[in-house]
Amino acid sequence: MSATSVALVSAGGAVLGAIAGGVITGLTTTRNTRIQAQSQREGERIAREHGQLDKHIEIRRAAYTELLHGVTELSECWASILNAPAADSSDDLRDALTAARQAANNVKRRTIVVVLEGPPLVAEMAGQCSSDAITYLQAILRVYQSNTAPPSDATVRDIVGDRCDQEEDAAHSSYAAFIRTARETLGGHL
Asked: Is 143 exposed, middle or buried (0-12, 13-18, 19+ CB in 10 A)?
């Protein structure tokens, strides 16, 4: 073999080696680019899901807190009614009854939102809390209205006395149970 042939074979081998190296490098680069793009898409998907989860938790927290505020507002109405003069002509009593009706309606609406947000156990506790709070209000009114001639200086509390203790205990107990369940659902943060 002549020196020219050896040089041509060597040059051809070098060219083929360069081409093969380029092809292998290109294939490896393409594969690595695909893997990197897939990893990036997966990371973005996880971040989106995490963001949506955080948003959903905040929506639940807001719904639970709104219900708690509504029940607190209703309990303030209980106190206003119980401390109002028992005379039918009392403006304080009329105002307290109007506020209590509005608060009870707010509690019902807020309970619906909690039931929709869930989960089922929290929805059940919210329904019980709402029901017990409104039942206590109704018990106060039932006992008050059954007394036809209250003394002139009596308050509604004087008339009701301890006849609604069971309903009051149930209202406070279900309120505490709702708080406990909501807190557990939100990971300890309400």
From this structure: middle
